[in-house]
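Reopening this one. Same input as before:
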Amino acid sequence: MSNDPNQKRNESSDSLANDSIFETLESNVFDSAGDESPEQVVDLLEQQLADLKDRELKAQAELENFRKRLLRDTEQQLKYALLPFVRDLVEVVDNLNRASDAATNSGSTDGLVAGVKLVQHQFHSVLAKYSCRPIESVGRSFDPNFHQAIAQQPSDKIAAGAIMMETSVGYVMHDRVVRPSMVIVSTGPAAKSGV
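Same output, byte for byte:
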């Protein structure tokens, strides 16, 4: 005897389905079995049983087809989920290429700097559109959920445990960290040696 609740539930639903089938068969047989012989009643029951088995097979086939279609649709959605994001990033790359070409053709770096700043702004706009934002770090308390400390340094200006420098910007998307910020954490004022 199994203690699996799912098996008990399935057995219970099978039992209910069988009871329902037999009630249908009984009502159909007794409603139409007025003057018929026992052989005719048996033939009628066999026909109804065959019809019910056919309906059951069709229902199972439909359920299996639905499951396969749902699985295929889910795979397609996952496969192409990033398509809108990539389309937006391609525009950023186009502008970066234009800035590089303009700087190469003009021989001046002023256009390149302006172009790169424009692309930087566009890139941050694309990230914000997809709910991806930079993690604020400098001056804040160190939080291992959002920051990764790469070093500690004494500082007279920044309190112990606070972040004094960010070497790499971290990002969060919705409430999940994409990449933690790489930071240098203050240990507070340097200890003075008394000589």
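So the earlier flakiness isn't reproducible anymore. For the record, The chain has three domains: 5-79, 84-130, 135-190.
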